[in-house]
Design brief:
Chain lengths: 260, 459, 193
């Protein structure tokens, strides 16, 4: 539904001017993911700009039923990003929220244009920049956690529910990283249990889901768990550190940005 | 384990106290999902089949009234008596009256979630009519006096030891016996006696064919057929949305139903009723009970396409780790969570939030109901109608106040991070639900925005 | 106003969208060897298969496998003398004693090993369920590939009742352990002619 009207044509100039949309919790708690995203895009030839008064896409409120309160965030988003040809975000779920739910009364045509130009990082690299090699090295066993909104919402990779050909944009990109060994998981795309406010309002199930996801990665020998959404990884990291596990999380931007 | 009278989150805490049990419940249901996947991959046209079934059901939703009238006319021509029940009470009265008119006080019933929804069994008991549920899983939960926890696998939450003890008490099997073959044989003997002596049998309806006035009942056990073909009176109860337009459409739905439900190519028996057998009376009760209200909700009417396969439950990572009883509704899991608020928004306001919106359910649904989209939409409706708990609503409003104001957000973030660094106990405590089983993220020295201003911005 | 009118009026008030019925609603799951596929699926669902040649072959098979059985019935005319139990009873309850029922099927479905049994094939609807063991005689030429083909071959159903029967009765309601033989027949043998 969301991908059919995404524009992937080139800028018509030598330099791709990209505006960075950084999720609020990445800005506050995982700035290194934003840094890695920016550096990676610059290495790939983009001029990267970070609109300074951005805050949040509005998803935490909307997913809690308060979509009707998000006009403030939506307007801010439109103000910050309307001027750019490409908006790139290192989060599948934030990107999906914008693509599916960005509405500003009175500015629908403008906002429709923005929704067509917002991309999650791995889909931007794959579909727009058409990256086919990366000067990156990460000689470790890595498990790829398919964050649900990116996978099933943005079709970043094929979902196991469908009888359809396999593909994975993040998986393909990780395959370009020297020394990286992608481990096979028992359940390839089960949800980690973060789910926004679900992580606290249904804490028992949320943590159980996270523990099971981690067990799958550990069973299959992952040293790192990666993915496109720091929210999932933040939740898994919380559980990993509580149990004293040596397994670490690392956002995919950080891995792809690991220069040789 | 009894149906929780508490909300899903609270019930789930109880369910999760026994982690090995949760693992067993989760793995058991995941395996049913795996079997579904194998079955789906055997049909190259699987996704086309889903799209077609979805389109047929869209047509049914749009032409429900004329299709029902057609169905009734054909059924009447074939000698079937047709009744209409506006709500659960009327449904129950109709069934009770039919039985009473024949002087029948004992009936067998095969699986019908509709009759669970209407609480038929207790109603008939109050009129002195005994109902024996003959599906093995249903009989098990009936003897335990608890509701089914899954619409296709009613006793999925029980171990064979539980059933062994139950049958020892009620059927006289050996104490300590748990062999499924032995226990099933005991149930066969016990229920065979019921089939042979009961004069009335009630079934559900898997598919009602408008074009012919006939209907299909699918079982693996043969209990529906054993009941009705020996009974003087066959009562078939259906939610009105069980219609399909034409007999040939059975091909589409029979190819999807069992594969989605259990991974079998088809149920053992797909029994098609057009006319009563000679000397028998056949009744169909067409039930509304809130379905027309759901049909009138543009965001939620697609939930009425459901063919009750249960695939959404098997794939739902939350259902597998909380169990059907946590949903306190006759139909649990993802589909239940979009049907239940229509019945009672206040009582079921928690259900659309018992989900991470992962979308797996939508993509196993054989009729392509946009379940996770409807879960999101119900959240909007429930919040607007004021059914979200006040504390949560206040928290969200506060979050929104901060996140919609750049300076407040930047300042608030900085302060929050500083406090976390200086006095971690402010968040690392038992009042913080995150902290119960997870470490909080480490607060970094600067936000990304601050890094950017230092390293890139020319301002 | 009757409930019927109330319900219909509420449905009409709900509004209608005018989608058309999907035009293509049959599909092409084709097998090069439908009989082989049927046999493979039947075995996987707990059924047994035999192949015989002609009516004599059928007779010989039944003698060899079930010759010592008592309380056997058949609705196949030529087998009347092979049976020892009268199907011409007014009361289907009396069939509770039947050990073995041999009936005729016309259409089989390769993809799921289902066989269409119409009311005409059984003098009593309960017969295929109440018998302890069931044998269905099926011509190989009656096996089609998928359910769409089967329904097209069967044509508009004119009988008062019929069923697709796929294998013996079964349940997995006790801890997902598959048990063959629930309330219907404990075993099914399909004899291909």
């Amino acid at each position: 539904m969301s991908e059919s009207y995404r524009r992937t044509d080139g800028p018509g100039t030598d330099t791709w001017k990209v505006a960075l949309f950084i999720p609020c919790y990445v800005d506050q708690f995982y700035p290194q993911v934003g840094v890695a995203t920016l550096e990676l895009l610059e290495k790939l030839g983009c001029e990267v700009v970070f609109p300074l008064s951005q805050t949040c896409c509005g998803q935490p409120m909307a997913n809690s039923g308060f979509g009707h309160l998000t006009d403030g965030c939506s307007r801010l988003f439109a103000d910050n990003f309307a001027a750019y040809d490409y908006v790139v975000c290192p989060s599948g779920s934030c990107t999906l929220h914008i693509v599916d739910h960005l509405h500003v009364p009175g500015r629908e045509a403008e906002v429709q244009g923005i929704r067509e130009r917002v991309f999650e990082l791995t889909e931007f690299l794959t579909d727009v920049l058409k990256v086919d090699h990366l000067p990156a090295r990460f000689p470790h066993r890595v498990g790829l956690h398919q964050s649900c909104h990116g996978q099933r919402g943005l079709h970043l990779s094929q979902m196991s529910e469908l009888n359809a050909p396999d593909f994975s944009k993040p998986g393909t990109l990780l395959g370009m990283v020297e020394g990286l060994e992608l481990v096979a998981l028992d359940r390839v795309d089960e949800c980690c249990g973060f789910g926004g406010t679900f992580c606290v309002s249904e804490e028992a199930v949320s943590v159980k889901m996270g523990r099971d996801r981690i067990a799958d990665h550990e069973r299959n020998g992952a040293e790192y768990i990666t993915g496109g959404d720091m929210s999932c990884l933040m939740h898994l990291e919380g559980i990993l550190r509580r149990k004293g596990s040596p397994v670490q999380v690392k956002h995919i931007a950080e891995i792809l940005n690991q220069s040789i | 384990m009894h149906k929780a009278e508490t909300d899903h989150a609270t019930a789930s805490i109880g369910f999760n106290r026994d982690e090995p049990y949760v693992d067993w419940h989760d793995e058991t249901l995941w395996f049913v999902r795996v079997k579904r996947d194998r079955a789906a991959r055997q049909l190259p046209e699987w996704e086309n089949l889903r799209e077609t079934a979805s389109g047929i059901k869209d047509f049914v939703l749009a032409h429900m009234d004329s299709l029902l009238v057609q169905f009734e006319a054909r059924a009447l021509e074939n000698g079937i008596k047709v009744h209409w029940a506006a709500d659960a009470d009327e449904h129950n009265r109709i069934v009770g009256d039919i039985l009473e008119s024949h002087g029948i006080t004992r009936m067998v019933k095969s699986k019908s979630m509709l009759t669970e929804e209407c609480h038929l069994n207790p109603y008939l008991a109050s009129r002195g009519i005994e109902v024996v549920d003959t599906d093995l899983g249903e009989r098990i939960v009936q003897l335990r006096q608890e509701p089914p926890s899954h619409i296709v696998l009613p006793a999925i939450h029980l171990k064979k030891q539980d059933i062994g003890e139950l049958f020892h008490e009620h059927l006289g099997t050996e104490a300590g016996a748990t062999d499924p073959q032995y226990l099933t044989e005991a149930a066969r003997v016990h229920l065979r006696e019921m089939f042979l002596t009961r004069r009335a049998a009630l079934t559900g309806v898997n598919f009602a064919v408008a074009e012919t006035g006939g209907f299909m009942v699918c079982t693996n056990e043969g209990n529906a057929d054993m009941g009705v073909h020996l009974a003087d009176v066959h009562i078939a109860c259906m939610g009105f949305e069980k219609l399909i337009p034409a007999e040939r459409h059975l091909g589409v739905f029979l190819r999807l139903l069992a594969r989605s439900a259990t991974g079998q190519p088809v149920t053992t028996y797909s029994s098609y009723f057009r006319k009563p057998r000679a000397g028998q009376e056949m009744h169909i009760v067409i039930v509304d009970n809130g379905r027309s209200a759901q049909l009138a909700r543009p965001d939620f009417r697609n939930s009425l396409k459901c063919i009750r396969c249960g695939a959404c439950m098997n794939t739902c990572p939350v259902y597998r780790r909380s169990g059907g009883h946590s949903y306190h509704h006759v139909v649990p899991g993802p589909i239940g969570s979009i049907l239940a608020p229509n019945f009672d928004m206040r009582a079921n306001a928690d259900l659309p939030f018992a989900s991470t919106l992962c979308g797996s359910c939508t993509n196993v649904c054989p009729v392509k109901i946009d379940i996770h989209y409807q879960l999101y939409q119900w959240r909007q409706t429930l919040a607007r109608e004021g059914y979200v708990p006040a504390a949560k609503a206040a928290g969200i409003r506060a979050m929104n106040a901060v996140l919609s104001r750049p300076r407040f957000y930047q300042w608030g973030g900085k302060v929050g991070r500083s406090l976390m660094k200086l006095a971690p106990v402010l968040v690392n405590n038992s009042l913080n639900p995150w902290y119960h089983q997870r470490e909080m993220p480490e607060p970094p020295g600067e936000s990304f925005r601050e890094w950017y201003l230092r390293n890139r911005s020319k301002k | 106003m009757s409930s019927r009118e109330k319900i219909l009026e509420r449905i009409r008030a709900a509004g209608r969208r005018p989608p058309a019925l999907p035009e293509i609603d049959t599909f092409e799951s084709r097998f090069e060897d439908p009989v082989g596929k049927f046999a493979e699926v039947l075995t996987s669902i707990g059924g047994e298969l035999a192949e015989v040649s002609g009516f004599d072959g059928l007779r010989a098979f039944l003698d060899q496998k079930y010759g010592s059985w008592s309380r056997r019935v058949s609705s196949i005319p030529g087998l009347a003398d092979w049976t020892d139990f009268d199907l011409q009873t007014a009361d289907p309850h009396s069939l509770a004693e039947v050990n073995l029922a041999v009936i005729q099927g016309e259409t089989g479905v390769a993809e799921n090993a289902a066989i269409w049994v119409g009311e005409q094939q059984v003098p009593h609807r309960v017969l295929p369920f109440i018998t302890q063991y069931l044998v269905i005689v099926l011509p190989k030429a009656g096996i089609v590939c998928n359910m769409h083909d089967a329904l097209a071959k069967i044509g508009p159903v004119s009988e008062g009742w019929g069923a697709f029967i796929a294998g013996p009765s079964k349940t997995a309601d006790i801890e997902q352990s598959l048990v063959i033989g629930a309330h219907g027949a404990r075993g099914l043998t399909v004899v291909l002619t």
